[in-house]
Specification:
heterotrimer, A mainly alpha (about 60), B alpha+beta (about 180), C mainly alpha (about 575), A: about 60 residues, mainly alpha, 2 helices, about 0% strand, rod-shaped, B: alpha+beta, Immunoglobulin-like, 5-stranded mixed beta sheet, about 35% strand, elongated
Amino acid sequence: MVHSDDKTGNHPEPPTEDNSEPERIPVMQQILDNPFLLLFLGITIPAVFYVIWGIMEIVHIPIAK
Amino acid sequence: MSISPPQEQLWWNEPIPKSELIWITTAFLWGLVMFFAMIYWHIAGEQNLSNEAYRTTPEAFAAKTEAMIAKYKVREEGGYPVVHPLPGEDVYLIGRLWQWWPILELEKDQTYRLHISSMDYMHGFSLQPVNINLQILPGYDMVLTVTPDKTGELGIVCNEFCGIGHHTMLGRLYVVDHP
Amino acid sequence: MATNEQYRICPATGLRIYRSAENLIKANAVVAVVFLAVGGLFGFMVAMTRWKAIHLLPAKWFYLVLTAHGLDVLVVWIIFFEMAVLYFASAVLLNCRLATPKLAWTGFALMLIGAVVTNIAVLQGGSSVMFTSYVPMRAAPHFYLGIILFAVGALIGCFIFLGTLIIAKQERTYKGSIPLVTFGALTAAIIAIFTIATGAIILIPTFLWSLGYISHIDPLVYRTIWWAFGHSSQQINVAAHISIWYLIAAVIFGAKPLSEKVSRFAFLLYILFLQLASAHHLLVDPGISSEWKIFNTSYAMYLAVLGSMIHGLTVPGSIEAAQRRKGYNNGLFEWLRKAPWGNPAFSGMFLSLILFGFLGGISGVVMGVEQINLIMHNTLYVPGHFHATVVAGTTLAFMAVTYLLIPLIFQRELILPGWARVQPYLFGLGAGGISVFMMGAGTLGVPRRHWDISMADAQLPYDFPGAANLMMGLNGMSAVLATLGGFIFIVVVVGSLLFGKRIAVGTTEAASGSGQPAASAVGRYGSAEAPAVPGTLAMVGVFFITFILYYFVNWKYLAEIWPLR
């Protein structure tokens, strides 16, 4: 899902329609432009830190004597 | 505009305006202050909820409570036993449809291990007017080490919905001076 | 990209609007508003029962109506409207056709059936278990089934949003990155997918348990996973209504973000950390460690709060920058004074921003401090907080954007513009009052979800301070104002849809081959200059001081309760 639609670029000095800009897209911008990577992160982080960690805490509650 | 694609295609390379930079820094530092405040209070503060809890069953918890009542009951009020346990003892409180059982009588400035559990649905332990609020679940024995610091007659309100009689579920707790 | 789908060009914005997306936006928005009316009416009855002088409903009805109120407004109204927002932010803002409209209609039907089934279950009387439906209290099986169907329908909507993003990219209907508002909607969709997944994980077993196929569901596990659903569902709102703030600022002022990078990064912080705040509900539960509580309740060191505080600067800041470019440059606040306060889309949006920040934001963070939660958990402070976020924040923002959608999507002029003009103020004042007075009662210890705080029927009665009854009375009066505001909203919206003057229909044509994307109607300005926004900085300064003071006052209150460990 790496961005490659510079073709229709919109730069201060507009390149011709099909001449893609050689300038590299910054990594953070590539991440923010990638909805499925964001979806993965947005599900994994709360699933690990909130749900899984939380359930492990509950499982480890000892039995009363 | 916010509703059209960014004009500058490599927007990540744009500089951040100074006003935003100031605010982001301030807000981030404030977040750190608030984060470490919770940790600090665990070290220096006196009001921290214990994480001590045990799995139990309504039957086992009720048996412990009845044993405590039999041992320390001092009188009765409106059908409720009033229990005056020795300081430092394990004290048990049952939440059930729709009462907090029994009435506890604790001594001021003494420390108790207070166990609370539910016999049926979830209940909310809400000690008033001190305003200590806890979630009470069936099957879990929650233990807190409390030190009442003022004498008086306190109410225990249920603040988790537990059915049609929820609003009648009240208990009582006395804090008295050391005899 | 050849498609024969019908579209028209919106004369006001130059956006290309496809018929299928338009119809879905209309249907979802209309159903949303219907449920807002129903749920709002239930809420009014709740407030009238809590008002001691009126004490409207008997206990059985109070708990039933409270359950229905929570479900209809916290879930049904909000999520239906969010579906409309998702379709708008993808198909309309990206000039694109909607992915698989037929499937979108299936999702819509599932949501509608689910909402109706759950409402029937509640109104039948056997499912007064509150919105949270904590086990082991049992509702009728179709209560859970309805929520599950609704959630599946909403999940379909989220995937259609993502599918539309793919189509727009493939068909190059936009250049570069997606607009900020669409990115905000993407944030909402991602949180929604997590929300719905956790909802399914817990509600499907609970449904089977209600049928007797599963013998036991652990109550603490239920609470933990249910809140990943219940709290995150409200975090969808935050992402959605902040997107709407940006949207309204763009449409009314032509505002552009001060910096794309900062605003998007703030949304990224939401995607990564906002859902962790589900832990706010478990801070006084037994047996979960303080490490878990502190990490999750603080959204990983308050990084999502940082996101909100950033939006709190950049949304008004973008308006200030746009206004200053138009020449409203005198003093700190001319840009704000000269804003169109008579336009309900703007006044609603700005009130939403202020009320959400000052009332909802600050109270949420304070209540979410691990230890301070001890003096607030399950008191009326909690509904006080979330009426500031969900009613004064989200609902008011959704109302404000509806005033824009009626001409844009429904192509009708507003009827009763005078009524519409006062509506946000009435509703905002009412919702603000509701939350302030409930929070006030909560600090006095008044429990939530409680029919009679005078405890008349209790064997061991307890008297709350007289101020508690005063608070509940003021809460009732605020609810009257909010209900009036809500009523005017419904009248204006429904009336405009039925009787509003039709706006000249934009060109309707079949899409021909590769139509050039419609140019934005709003002029451009250089992005290089960094606009100064002193007025906004002054506002966030006031906010910050309020935040700090209120935060430390509550530590002081906490220090006064019994020592416990």
